[in-house]
Design a protein that fits this description.
Blueprint (H helix, E strand, L loop, with lengths): L39 H4 L36 H13 L21 H7 L2 H4 L11 H18 L3 E3 L5 H18 L6 E5 L5 H8 L3 E5 L9 H7 L4 E7 L11 H10 L3 E5 L19 E3 L20 E3 L11 E4 L5 E4 L6 H7 L16 H37 L17 E3 L10 H10 L6 E2 L9 E3 L7 H19 L19 H6 L10
Parallel strand pairs: 2-3, 2-4, 4-5, 5-6
Antiparallel strand pairs: 1-7, 6-7, 8-9, 10-12, 11-12
Helix pairs in contact: 3-11, 5-11, 6-7, 11-13, 12-13
The structure holds pyridoxal-5'-phosphate.
């Protein structure tokens, strides 16, 4: 392959030139049946096209109103087979959930069932348009509403906002509900409390909504320090944002006591529900006093994420917050039909659900949310059933504990003493030899065939490695991963300096991540 190119693109140096793996360098940069691939701009040609359009008629009326393009657009052209090969070659350099175990902690990288995809592609779902007349999309409203009812009953909450498009967007929705509820009672509060171990989106959301963020310390067990929290509560505290299970992979056992204390002080409880996978079917956050919680459909309910698709972050709300949620929402009225409610109304449904006319903080999105994700999540829920969802949580926790107990003799496991973990196992870099780091271990894991785990998060553990296998991995798959993980952990403890050069076998070697972050090249320029 390796079409001639204009920019002087050269294949990356073969790893063998470092003497690091056997065999001579190849002249192309290709390795076995893995082909190197330049950028589209480097192989494409403005004169080439994959389509054959007729010349416009000379006497055709020009309706561009003087907006005719003055210069060529400069997009690279390729024939159809060249285009297909370009993207297929690139895809082979990628790692995905359909290739192997994806241990990213906090991300819940579970298998995306094919049944979900099949249902989402049914024309009645796939081809609906958000501007279609309401009467032609009744089925879509039924799907949204049925999913909403499932999420409400799984969480034991009162209401739900379906439109937020990701976890972080859901956090914003929940915090805006809290602010609207406080404003409605003329109570301007300024501070949101967030534990040290929180996901970065929590303090970012609170700050974005105009609150001052203060840390809540953790105790030696890795959980929220209840006494420290209670000591800080007062008339300036709008609420707390707590992740449960938390980002150390532990269940916050004092959640009910935390909620009671916050409510007594006039505040609200936001729960980051990104880790709901560990407790779905077993714990209802509503019973723990939670006022608002987002659910990542792209984590707990198996819809694709990352490069694979958009997220969806519905937010369940307590009775106190439901009247302040965003518009639009779906409502099944007395006639048995699901309606899309776009404006605050004083109808029977509002009376029953909001105790009167809604006082919505407004809209979060132009339309109703991520239809494709709703369809997939509902398919997942219905194919598991209530008993199956409970088993999801049990298997996810069992798998994570299997990893924790298989590694704790080798790797520092800071909270292993405080009992079983939930859905993810947390390790630190204590005891690594030489000046080896978590980054070196992760790069060596790539050579062993695995995408690395989440690194350096949560911040409370030095050189953190957060591993979340999810329930979709078999024992055989876990054993294979553990073998690779133990190998690189042993090398790190022994101070094997060659790890600093890893990865040796990946399509690209170690990148200058600082340069990439500080001076990202976001656009291709000719000759660069
Ligand atoms: C993933 C995650 C979020 C953010 O969710 P997005 O859908 O990525 O915006 C927030 N908190 C925790 C604990 C998470 O794991």
């Amino acid at each position: 392959m390796n079409a001639p190119n204009k920019s002087g693109w050269k294949p990356e140096m073969n790893a063998s030139e470092d003497g690091m793996h056997n065999g001579p360098a190849t002249s192309t940069g290709n390795r076995a049946l893995m082909l190197e691939e330049p950028l589209l701009f480097e192989i494409g040609n403005v004169e080439t096209t994959g389509v054959d359009l007729p010349e416009p008629k000379a006497d055709a009326p020009n309706r561009l109103g003087g907006m005719d393009r003055a210069e060529p657009i400069g997009l690279p052209g390729l024939s159809e087979p060249e285009t297909v090969r370009h993207y297929t070659r690139l895809s082979r350099q990628n790692y995905g959930i359909d290739l192997g175990l994806f241990p990213l902690g906090s991300c819940t990288m579970k298998h995306n069932p094919r049944l979900n995809e099949k249902v989402a592609r049914m024309p009645g779902f796939a081809d609906v348009h958000p501007l279609q007349p309401v009467d032609t999309v009744r089925g879509a409203f039924e799907v949204i509403n049925e999913l909403a009812e499932w999420l409400i009953s799984l969480t034991g909450m009162h209401g739900i906002a379906m439109s937020p498009k990701a976890g972080a967007h859901g956090e914003l929705c929940g915090i805006l509900c809290i602010r609207a509820a406080l404003e409605a009672r003329g109570d301007a509060r300024e501070v949101i409390l967030v534990p040290e171990s929180a996901h970065g989106t929590n303090p970012a959301t609170a700050a974005f909504a105009g609150y001052r963020v203060e840390d809540i310390p953790a105790n030696a067990d890795g959980r929220v320090d209840l006494e420290a929290l209670k000591a800080r509560l007062g008339p300036d505290i709008a609420g707390v944002m707590i992740t449960n299970p938390n980002t150390c992979g532990l269940f916050e056992r004092d959640m009910k006591a935390i909620s009671d204390a916050v409510h007594d002080a006039g505040g609200f409880v936001y729960c980051d529900g990104a880790n709901f996978n560990a407790i779905v079917g077993r714990v209802r956050p509503g019973d723990l006093g939670v006022d608002a919680m987002h659910i990542n459909l792209h984590k707990t309910f198996s819809t694709p994420h990352g490069g694979g698709g958009p997220g969806s972050g519905p937010v369940v709300l307590s009775e106190a917050l439901a009247p302040f949620g965003p518009l639009p929402y779906t409502a099944r009225t007395r006639d048995g039909v699901v309606h899309l409610v776009e404006e605050e109304q004083a109808d029977a449904f509002s009376q029953e659900h909001f105790g009167g006319k809604m006082q919505s903080f407004g809209r979060m999105t132009a339309f109703h949310g991520q239809m494709g994700m709703f369809t997939r999540a509902l398919t997942y829920i219905l194919s598991h059933g209530a008993d199956g969802l409970k088993q999801v949580a049990e298997d996810a926790v069992l798998n994570a504990n299997y990893i924790l107990r298989s590694m704790e003799d080798l790797l520092h496991a800071p909270y292993a003493h405080s009992g079983p973990c939930m859905h993810e196992a947390l390790f630190g870099d204590k005891g690594f030899g030489g000046d080896l780091s978590t980054l070196d271990l992760s790069k060596a894991l790539i050579d062993e065939g695995y995408h690395p785990m989440t690194m350096y998060f949560p911040l409370v553990v030095h050189g953190a490695m957060l591993v979340e296998p999810t329930e979709t991995e078999s024992k055989a798959a876990l054993d294979q991963f553990i073998q690779a993980f133990r190998t690189v952990a042993e090398r790190a403890k022994a101070g094997d300096e060659s790890m600093k050069q890893a990865p040796f076998y990946a399509p690209r070697r170690r990148l200058d991540e600082t340069l990439a972050a500080r001076k990202p090249k976001l656009a291709w320029e000719e000759g660069e």
